[in-house]
Design goal:
Order of helices and strands: EHEHEHEEEHEHEHEHHHEEEHHHH
Strand order of the largest sheet: 1-12-11-10-9-8-7-2-3-4
Mean pLDDT: 96
Amino acid sequence: MLIDESAAKGFMAKRAVTVHKGECGRILVVAGSTGLTGAAVLAAQAALRAGAGIVTLACAKSLNNIFEIKLTEVMTVPVDEAAPGIIGGNALDDLLEREKNYDVTLLGPGLGRHEATQELVRAFIEGAQSRLVLDADALYALRGQGGLLKKCSQVPVLTPHLGEMALLLGISVKELRRNIKEIANQAAREYNGIFVVKSEKTIVAFPTGEIMTTGVGNAGMATAGSGDVLAGTIAGAYKLAKTECFPQLGVYIHGRAGDLAFDKARYGLIASDIMNNIGCVLAELC
């Protein structure tokens, strides 16, 4: 199935006039580390742009002041650190208690690859009750341990680029490219996850065996932070979409926003340009 404008309109849910922010999606973002605060900011803001009513960023406590300056509409929650700017296992109980109050937890953008962080990611995945969207460093923590995904309480959404997908599955990028749809299909079935595999034309593979591809997106979107915006857009679209349609709706919104940005900036496009065009896409779909 092609994810185009017509399909995207079909994925959209109607929002009642009487709706309040708590009904529009409560998103917890666990992201950011020293030197990678921008990834967390892009992901959290994209979630709001994509329709979420409430977004909270859980971050290493020494970085909280930075995030409070960079973010206005997103709330922040400082959690215990394993080292300055690094979230580790000592934050696990706090995060698991908090995530119960959210519809979706987006885990990974800019989180870093410290061993304590990787251990936290794996333990969090096993214990979380909210719907998980796993991106970037959360995927790195799962390399060779994809079986942990079967322990998720709800079907997780993974957003790997080709390198992350290959690392997760223990194969080469060259091998993945040769048969990307079949491999994504097999992975989705084996790990009971929804795989949003980012490439020239992003593929969405479901545990049911269904495969969707995008009809939007461009080469200008090959820029730092674009994937963080995608992960945030998918998480933020959770309540914007009909049940179980939020990954493919998020993919369309992101790609179409990138096309609108490309018309203005071409190869000077940056990730925040994509994010800033999300509202224009929602106006087209509504």
